[in-house]
Design brief:
Layout: E1 2-11, H1 18-36, E2 40-48, H2 52-60, H3 65-82, E3 89-92, H4 96-111, E4 115-125, E5 130-132, E6 150-159, H5 165-174, E7 179-180, H6 182-191, E8 199-200, E9 202-204, E10 213-214, E11 217-222, H7 224-229, H8 231-234, H9 244-248, E12 251-256, H10 260-274, E13 281-285, E14 288-290, E15 293-294, H11 305-312, H12 314-324, E16 331-333, H13 335-364, H14 380-401, H15 405-426, H16 428-431, H17 438-459, H18 464-473, H19 477-481, E17 510-512, E18 521-523, H20 542-546, E19 550-560, E20 568-573, E21 577-582, H21 590-593, E22 597-601, E23 607-609, E24 612-614, E25 617-618, E26 620-624, E27 630-634, E28 646-647
Parallel strand pairs: 1-2, 1-12, 2-3, 7-13, 12-13, 14-16
Antiparallel strand pairs: 4-5, 4-6, 6-8, 9-11, 10-11, 14-15, 17-18, 19-20, 19-22, 19-28, 20-21, 22-25, 23-24, 26-27
The protein binds 5'-O-[(L-methionyl)-sulphamoyl]adenosine (MSP).
């Protein structure tokens, strides 16, 4: 079987936040799940780089649209590895192959008679980059951007979308899975109960030049949505790439409710006009709010995924977003909620079950997976466990396939609860006291081991790092790499005799870090000294300040780090030469840096970045720009001074 699954391509007018991360995590989890089922999977994400919004944001940032798009597209691409997201392809609408594909399609649809030239007057929302109907307005405003649309009168090209309205209604009725969850399908059908207007698909170059030129009229560029949706075809080699037919037949798109209309109406009708079959399924999720308020730059509550990962760990973030949001409905993020999920579901339920089970296998079975008694000797407790595991597997598959991730996880956590009870009921520590119960003890332990292996495998798509650790601790790291769901169906799938490692702690408990903003968390643990500020009010003592060794450094060599848009490898004299990796490639070219004096934090523990060991950090000032991007300028000294001089 084949799977082709996509995220929306994100506008490059803002840096990635929790909302973008959620859609992309979901898509990554789904693709990993399909791989686990044995499918050949293609997972695509990318960036949407043309149009008015981007041209305007670039102008504000004092950059050309291309420089600007390059910078933000790199920020998106560099975010995904932090979240353990592994797309097979990252497309950019400025890729020349995409531009050619868009032009080919425009010509085709034009030749088929579905594009015409006309004058139009309508209410245009710049935020949405589309004309709105009167009905969509709320008190005269665009409901998404809370601003009145502009009345625009223009000559433009139009796509005969209305030609395909009847066909689309019929298609949605015939294919209940085409748009899910059902509420969004109903929303689309309700919209389609009114006559569809044709779609304006061009913008005059007098107003906008940052777009794909129309192949049949150079005075116009393509409307950004017509350009953007086509990415789903470009990425798999439309029209004549060898894999195109195979992938397109299985296409599934994941989006949030904000872009339902372009995906559920423009896109299928465009495909129909091109003579292509529509995509297979459209999965629509709700919106993340923060502390029950809309996430917005002006409120200063935008959640950056990389920061979340730094404080909570990648798998906690992945688990949290999937478990907390019922796919289709809105959800609210709060630092208390993620902390609670981490400590309760992950550290307590899963983490404790895992470590207590392995500790017992270590103690009572010499650290090897034990052999189980014959089936006939199973107690009702064992039977209950086996049937609960089988039921979980069915629910897991069904819910993962149906994008009900929170339910799939609930099903796993139900068996985790059951296993914790199984341990209490069967009390291996009591069985160990009675030599006549030796066989029973081994059976109980083997049930635990086997159940943990199954849990490891089903968690692999959601928490790849943790599942990897679990597999290693269970002595199954080799099988883990290519394991499929069929490999864990039935029982006795974990070979007796494999050597386990009880020393793995999966999730150290986290506690709220005192006290400044209450949003940070820190690992909890006996004997670990809290890094509390000197007087508890965010101030530090001079002695604390002195612990950071700041020195003047001179950059003597600089080069780009392969496969990174952000990192430079610097050789800095301070006074001895050391390698420092710095995230300044977007702002500084390597040549411009040679000879520059910088301030170096010299006594930082070395850390590996893209495989290069960095000994310290160069300091830079950051300024958030109105568009949410960051301006970065290196810190330096005001006059000539020898490299290595202490800064204090
Ligand atoms: N460029 C268009 C999409 C073109 S696809 C052919 C676009 N880009 S966007 O950057 O605005 O991204 C919108 C998508 O980002 C949403 O559909 C959703 O996937 C994600 N999210 C943005 N904010 C979100 C939340 N607050 N909550 C959940 N997801 C959100 O629209």
């Amino acid at each position: 079987m084949t799977t082709y699954v996509t995220t929306p391509i994100y506008y490059v007018n803002a840096l990635p936040h929790l909302g973008h991360a959620y859609t992309t995590i979901v898509t990554d989890v789904y693709s990993r799940f399909r791989r686990l089922c044995g499918d050949e999977v293609r997972f695509q994400t990318g960036t949407d780089e043309h149009g008015e919004k981007i041209a305007e944001a670039a102008a504000k940032a004092g950059e050309t649209p291309r420089q600007y798009a390059d910078r933000i597209a790199a920020a998106f691409a560099e975010t995904w590895p932090h979240l353990a997201i592994q797309p097979d392809h990252i497309i950019r609408t400025t890729d020349p192959v995409h531009v050619r594909t868009v032009q080919g399609i425009l010509q085709l649809v034009h030749d088929r008679g579905d594009i015409y030239f006309s004058e139009y007057e309508g209410l245009y929302c710049q935020g949405c980059e589309r004309f709105l109907t009167e009905k969509e307005l709320v008190e005269g405003n665009c409901p998404d951007h809370q601003a009145p649309p502009k009345l625009i009168n223009e000559q433009n090209y139009f796509f005969r979308m209305s030609n395909y309205q009847e066909w689309l209604i019929e298609h949605i009725h015939r294919n209940p899975e085409f748009i899910t969850p059902e509420r969004y399908r109903n929303e689309v059908l309700s919209f389609l109960s009114e006559p569809l207007e044709d779609l304006c698909i061009s913008r005059p170059t007098s107003r906008l030049t940052w777009g794909v030129p129309l192949p049949f009229d150079e005075k116009f560029v393509t409307y950004v949505w017509f350009d953007a949706l086509i990415n789903y075809l470009t990425g798999i080699g439309y029209p004549d790439g060898p894999d195109f037919p195979r992938y397109w037949a299985e296409a599934e798109h994941v989006i949030a409710k904000d872009i339902l209309k372009p995906h559920a109406i423009y896109w299928p009708t465009m495909l129909r006009a091109m003579g292509l079959a529509p995509f297979k399924r459209l999965h629509v999720h709700g919106y993340w709010n923060v502390d029950a308020t809309k996430m917005s730059k002006s409120l200063g509550n935008v959640i950056r995924p990389v920061e979340l990962v730094a404080t909570h760990g990648v798998d906690t973030v992945r688990y949290f977003v999937l478990r907390e949001m019922s796919f289709g409905l809105d959800a609210s993020f709060s630092s208390d909620a993620i902390l609670a999920r981490h400590n309760s579901d992950l550290a307590n339920d899963l983490g404790n079950l895992f470590s207590r089970s392995l500790t017992m296998i270590d103690k009572y079975a010499d650290g090897r997976m034990p052999v189980r008694e014959a089936e006939a000797a199973c107690t009702p407790d064992d039977q209950e466990l086996m049937s609960a595991m089988s039921a979980m597997m069915v629910q897991y598959r069904d819910n993962m396939d149906g994008f009900r991730f929170h339910r799939a996880l609930q099903a796993i956590w139900e068996v985790i609860g059951l296993l914790n009870r199984y341990i209490v009921n069967n009390a291996p520590w009591e069985l160990a006291k009675n030599p006549r119960q030796a066989e029973r003890l081994q059976t109980v332990l083997s049930f635990l081991g086997e159940a943990l292996w199954k849990i490891t495998v089903v968690l692999k798509p959601v928490m790849p790092e943790t599942a990897g650790k679990m597999a290693t601790a269970l002595g199954m790291s080799e099988s883990f790499v290519a394991v499929t769901i069929d490999d864990i169906s039935g029982w006795n799938r974990l070979p007796a005799g494999v050597v386990i490692d009880k020393g793995t702690q999966l999730f150290p408990r986290l506690e709220k870090k005192a006290p400044a903003d209450g949003t940070q968390v820190a690992p909890k643990g006996p004997g670990k000294k809290k890094e509390s500020p000197g007087d508890g009010a965010g101030l530090i003592t001079f002695d604390q300040f002195k612990t950071v060794e700041l020195r003047v450094g001179e950059i003597v060599a600089a080069e780009k780090v392969a496969k990174s848009e952000r990192l430079l490898k610097l050789t800095v004299k301070a006074p001895e030469e050391r390698t420092i990796v710095a995230g300044i490639a977007a702002q500084y070219s390597p040549e411009a840096l040679i000879g520059q004096r910088v301030i170096v934090a010299a006594n930082l523990k070395p850390a590996k970045l893209m495989g290069i060991l960095s000994h310290g950090m160069v300091l830079a000032a950051k300024e958030e720009q109105p568009d949410g991007t960051e301006k970065l300028v290196l810190a330096t000294v005001a006059g000539p001074i020898a490299p290595g001089s202490r800064v204090a």
